[in-house]
User: What shape does this take?
Amino acid sequence: MIYFAFSAWPCSAWDQNPVIITGTGSFGSGSNQLNEPRDVAIDNYFNIYVSDAFNHRIQKYINGSTSGITLTSGGGSGPSQVNYPTGLWIDPDGNLYVTDYFNCRVMKYNNISFASLSIPIVGQAVAGVPLSWYGVQRNVDLSTLSNDWSECYRGTYAAALNETILTSILNACNKGQLLLACRPVNTSLLTVAAMGLRADVLFNCSSSSSCTHAANGVGWYYSNNYSWGFVSNNDTVSRNPCDTTQANPSYGLCWYTGQLSGGLQCGANILSPLNYTNFERIIYHS
Assistant: This one.
């Protein structure tokens, strides 16, 4: 027991036996489960709010309840969505603020204690840099890129993007927004480029031949042992491990990952080992 002395009382005892408010001891996405909870806030009515990071949601627990109500509508960048929420704070007026980590923004939800629980709550971004490009860009002049972006990786197509190299790249390119691009060596314009939220750019398609993840007008795919790249919005792909049969190849980019070296696409340019050193991959982050 831990004892505290106060002037009004001889002593008080702290109960060392905690009460579990919610959670089962293992991760999950049920109403009584969490997956990496990052922060807690309590409103004036003793309702509890939890940022459930890996479930990409905000949970509300009505005073005394062990089952949470999901306030947001799933992982994403929309006004009713969050992507790996972390910190929470409720101001004196009852507004909830959420640090929306992978969306690089802070969201505000007005009068959270009385928000409708029948529909996802809609917030407004009060901080963060929005994506300035929509869709795949061609022949890009880097002077059009805002100062919030900085180069974090550059290397020729000859370099193998094995797991060790990818880990090093992603540790260096560690911010919430990524831009993938390519071009011939010693040229200034990017042949093809696209930007997106980190979670979208790194959407894991494993070795699926047809998987893409559409976000910000780009169809993204990633695997650390197959291929990494993009196509225009909802264009179909046939990865093996890269795709050379796209409807709009000039809007595509594909890099081999894993044990394969080089590869393979920079816009309309389908490369071979003979010219891998003539083209370079570039990544920016913001």
Summary: Confidence is low (pLDDT under 50) at residues 1-9.
